[in-house]
Amino acid sequence: MRSASPSQASPQSPPSPTQASAQPDPAAGKLIFEGHCALCHGIDGGGGRGPSLRQPKLVQAANDEALKSVIENGIPPDMPEAWYLSQEEIASVAAYVRRLGNVVPEVLPGDPARGKAIYARNGCSACHILDGEGSGYGPELTDAGARRGSARLRETLQNPTKTIPEKFLFVEAATPSGQTIRGIRLNEDSFTIQLKDQQGRFYSFRKSELRDLKKLRGETPMPPYGSVLSPADLDDLIHFLASQRGKP
Ligand code: HEC
Ligand code: HEC
Question: Structurally, how many domains does the chain consist of?
Fold first, then answer.
């Protein structure tokens, strides 16, 4: 019998004997999650660089097949594919992620109705849109509680520079006429950069024409509120934000 030439060799790997029978194991999934996913989704799945997974419905993973596919293939460009996981491991992490979504909502201290008033009093709407009101300099907060757990919300309010999202960049541009414009980068290529300032004005500059372009990495226009608000006010505000779960 002649042996098969390399080009005729079967591309299929032999079927794994355990694959068909193995049940997804959420406990094993938890360990994988903590090792590979927590970096972006938070140790408790409450969100970080990636969104909170502690939600009953995941927009991009409506059913188990979609969830496994998201884990296996990632979501370019922000979420990497999990090439290092076997199909069984993927099923186990998926089972664990589903469990995260079943958790009962956190029981939080504070009074959300008071939190709403604190939100209004502290000028948050100068930079955020909530339920259609305010200005969209920072991220919309209508679904803040669906995307972020309370620990993460607290950290942003106390120390916003610690929770700056991956792609966010605050910049300062000195124009040829000597004006200084600070804003959030919307877009950038080799030759141009587009900014939005706090008043909602858009700018597009040719980089070669700017006197100076400072990328204020690690800075954010969001002020820290840890010392402005009392601990009780912070609890109220966090409870209010955590109850913002988007429009049904
Ligand atoms: C480098 C950061 C990063 C890592 C590591 C990462 N993710 Fe993500 N993940 C993201 C980001 C960012 C998004 C949102 C992408 C988008 O919407 O464009 C996301 C989205 C998701 C979604 C869809 C959420 C929804 O609301 O539809 C699921 C599910 C998910 N990730 C699970 C996982 C699991 C499980 C792992 C570990 C195997 C993992 N992710 C690892 C960053 C990451
Ligand atoms: C001067 C503008 C400005 C003001 C005022 C401001 N923020 Fe922000 N906020 C931002 C920007 C810009 C970001 C995004 C960059 C970052 O995370 O630092 C942000 C981020 C956030 C986030 C995180 C959103 C996410 O998607 O994770 C929350 C929550 C938040 N702000 C709540 C508030 C609350 C509550 C107030 C009022 C007490 C407030 N902000 C006041 C500009 C502002």
Answer: 3
Three-state SS sequence of the chain:
CCCCCHHHCCCCCCCCCCCCCCCCCHHHHHHHHHHHHHHHHCCCCCCCCCCCCCCCCCCCCCCHHHHHHHHHHCECCCECCCCCCCHHHHHHHHHHHHHHHCCCCCCCCCCHHHHHHHHHHCCHHHCCEECCEECCCCCCCCCHHHHCCHHHHHHHHHCHHHHCCCCCCEEEEECCCCCEEEEEEEEECCCEEEEECCCCCEEEEEHHHCCEEEECCCCCCCCCCCCCCCHHHHHHHHHHHHCCCCCC
Q: Are residues 226 and 127 in the same domain?
A: yes
Q: Which ligand neighbours the alpha carbon of 168 most closely?
A: 2
Residue 147, domain extent: 112-164+222-242
- pLDDT tens, position by position, 63-90: 999 999 999 999 999 999 999 999 999 9
Instruction: Indicate whether residue 244 lines ligand 2 (CB < 6 A).
Output: no
Q: Model's pTM, two decimal places?
A: 0.71
Q: Which of 114, 121, 127, 230 to mutate to test the pocket of ligand 2 (most atoms within 8 A of CB)?
A: 127
| 110 Cα: distance to centroid of ligand 2 (angstroms) | 20
